[in-house]
Amino acid sequence: MNVRVWVMGCATLLVGACDEFQDFSSSPTDGLLTQAPEGVLAIAAPNQDLTAVRVDPANGCYVYRYKGPVETTLLPLRTVDGRPICTGSVDAQVAG
């Protein structure tokens, strides 16, 4: 009988762990643009989701939403050469 209770309790915890976790401080969808600017579209490498981009306030570079099999996260938007696409230096943005 105790084994059955332990198995049911563990199963409940495992199923609960699969539920979507919501972090209320920030979300990967906060501030996303539904369409990237034309200049960014012209230089961005293929196979990146250009329908959900934003500028990362920490470094001034564009990031895009990547929906993986386990989680959704923001990845740096890159050119065909692999360079990040940025709006300018963060120091210039803070001073301005």
Question: Describe it for me?
Answer:
The chain has 96 residues and is an alpha+beta fold. The chain has a domain at 30-96. It is 29% helix and 15% strand. The chain is built from 3 helices and 3 strands; from the N terminus they run H-H-E-E-E-H. A 3-stranded antiparallel β-sheet has the order 1-2-3, with no helix packed on it. The longest helix is centred in the first third of the chain and has 16 residues, at 2-17. The protein is rod-shaped and about 65 Å long. The termini are far apart. Residues 21-26 and 91-96 have low confidence and may be disordered.
Helix and strand content put the structural class at alpha+beta
Question: Strand count, sense and closure of the main sheet?
Answer: 3 strands, antiparallel
| Biggest β-sheet: strands ordered side by side in the sheet | 1-2-3
The helicity comes to 25-40%
Q: End-to-end span in angstroms?
A: 68 Å
Output mean pLDDT.
Answer: 78
The count of helical stretches stands at 3
Apparent shape: rod-shaped
Total beta strand runs: 3
Low-confidence stretches: 21-26, 91-96
Strand content: 5-15%
Rg for CA atoms: 20 Å
**Series of H and E elements:** HHEEEH
